[in-house]
Write the structure tokens for this entry.
Amino acid sequence: MATAEQTQRRMGCLGIWLAVMILTNLYAIFEYATGGLGIYYRVPDAPLWAYYLFLIATGVAAVGAVGVWLGQRWGLYTFVIAYVVSQLAAILQGTTIMALHLILGLFVLYALLRGRWQAFT
């Protein structure tokens, strides 16, 4: 577990970004599971399994973001892997804007975690 000092030090931009990521991933799960955004922006001939893959990867990314919030390395690995899988699923669905958004999210994560790897357990 992260110490109180590590948690307090992490609550700057990284804390805000992680809170936004957790909330947006939960919102995306709701939207895709209820047929909201996922149905409207999906290419008609895209494989349906890519849609479900994106839904599952979004849920895993939310869990990974919580792990990063708690200062766990597994959370970081889980978040990055889920984002890469989400990016592949977005490309298969034909939503290149979503794929670019996912790349931007990984760059922001790298910028915020640069030099803080030792704080993770």
Summary: The radius of gyration is 15 Å.
